[in-house]
Design brief:
Oligomer: single chain
CATH topology of the domain at 526-660: GMP Synthetase, Chain A, domain 3
Bound molecules: adenosine-5'-monophosphate-propyl ester
CATH architecture of the domain at 526-660: 2-Layer Sandwich
Helix content: 25-40%
CATH superfamily of the domain at 526-660: ANL, C-terminal domain
Mean pLDDT: 95
Number of strands: 31
Length: about 650
Amino acid sequence: MVKDPEKENVYWPSENLKEKAWISDAKIYEKARRDPKAFWAEKAKETLDWFEEWEKIEEWNPPYFNWFIGSKTNLAYNCLDRHLEENRNKTALIWEPEPPEEQQRLLTYQDLYEQVSKFANALKDLGIKKGDPITFWMPMIPETAIAALACQRIGAWHSIVYTAFSPNAVKDRMEDAESRNLITADAFFRGGKTLKLKEKIDRVLEEIGAKNCIVVNRAKTDPPMKKGRDHFYNEIVSDEEPYCEPEPIGAEDISFLLYTSGTTGKPKGIKHSCGAYATQAALTTKWVFDLHPQDIFFSTADIGWITGHSYSLYGPLLNGGTVLWYEGSPYHPEPDRWWKIIDENKVNIFYTAPTAIRALRRKGDEWVEKHDLKSLRILGSVGEPIDPDTWGWFFEKVGGKRCPIVDTYWQTETGGIIITSIPGIGPFIPSVAGPAVPGIKYDVFDVTGKPTEPGTSGKVVLKHPFGPGMLRGVHKAPDKYKEEYWSEYGDEIYFTGDGGRKIDMEIGEQNLIEITGRIDDVLEVAGHRLGTAEIEDAISSLAEITEVAVVGKPHDVKGEVPAVFAVTKSDIDLERREEELKRKIVEIVRKKIGPVATPDATYFVSDVPKTESGKVIRRFLKSLLKDEKLGDVTTVSNPRCLKELAKKVNYKGPEKIVSFTT
Ligand code: PRX
């Protein structure tokens, strides 16, 4: 990397990097801006094979749109079949199991192709067909990739649920999707422990009346199996043919559902398309990570999140790349596991989240220094803003000041990366994500919908034509779709839910942007997205609690963590029961949502700030936790409670506590 001679903390790609990069001329931004639809159509033809080409590139009926109308393609075909002629024996997936004594598994494109076909045939034999939802509660094992691709092959919709969500969370998502089929594993390994899945989900299978449960016998733990309903993966694929005709998937069809948290109590089933989604996933993988045929791409993102879909699976395979999956914890058996994996496998591209970088940094530099990481060429960050200090450590200790850090901003809804600097163009600036990727238009609006000037904070929005990877709606909830994304500035402007600031620097005639984080009621806990309303719903189900508000509290490693403000029934003796109730709150959240949402702090209070109409004003709770100025408190109908709250959270901000009592 080359340091900017004038601007502090600004880096540009070296000549070497530019020479190698797919994209190194900023004119691409202008070209894409002139005609974004034509740009995406050209890239769709270059990056994918289509069974039938489109009659029309894009159609827009705000807030709905569709890309490549009339086209047909298949995601599994594009990830596998078309690479066979030249790359049959190339490794597609390197799988690193957690137990260090266990052998790595390598799957070539031919292996994957055959196994995907076999599993696709097995799914068909179970009666699963195009348009059927299938829920996954699967760890990072090769069968998860195989099963996802098999769904794509036959046009069934996978709905993958993160394994750190609870069985109840799986149930909610199965019910919403009307899914009666589950794929899971007996157990998997994490942090040296055997974590059971099948046994834990049995109750849910009964409750929803599941038709099929396919079980990968990963840890050989002898899970309970119900005759007729439960099938071992190995047994159902053993006699299947290694070829399955790929189903043609149309532009209006869905290729998968992925549940994510929004501002309402229930997670939303985000619908993604096939060919259009794949176009953005493929192009951004190639350009943003500068993926070349011989590269090894290690994305630490779990398949339960959109990053796992687009960059641990589809994007790299669409490009004929080699992707590396690791099953377990970065600390097992020691906190250098990721660095060891990079060293031993000569990884070239490494994509992870700031929270993980912060956590590993705390373990000490010696763990990184022990390993030769010179194979790395590109580093990527995702999930939350990366603070300059963490950026600096990642850049220096992991990337040896050689590798650009692509700070990739996007969402479950956008399907692929929308804002980031590109390796061969730059610039790379700590905490600045970059310009929009070619073909995407972003802006930052003030409350009235006017674009802000550089340096002024506002709301990050996207403008038409949105990238082809963009969501196609919320499953069975058109109102939620409109309300959540298309109501802030009307139905032609997509509101991301994030705050941001343009900076006074341009690339390709567009300002770079700094993303400052969510400004709606959504948390990013260790890069995992959770709705405050979801956590509140879980806690409100406790009989002892009458009112609850959940907000994000800053955390050194995780970025933010859920903090709970709870009001108990008047007859509860808090002095005696405080600890017990705190435990109950943690338990109910873990049970209803999962360990990922565990509250970090609970404050029992006599009231929470509300508007005249009784709506909780979380903004004040957040400011109190962050020691920030509270601003205008005249909208609070019960300002006295602020004094108690300030005391509870040990507020050290600029506001005088006494002023809240008036
Ligand atoms: O708040 C932004 C944050 O993650 C949110 C999207 O979460 P999710 O749909 O789970 O997808 C995460 C992975 C794409 C965004 O609304 N976010 C994501 N990437 C960044 C980020 N915040 C700042 N900088 C980023 N690079």
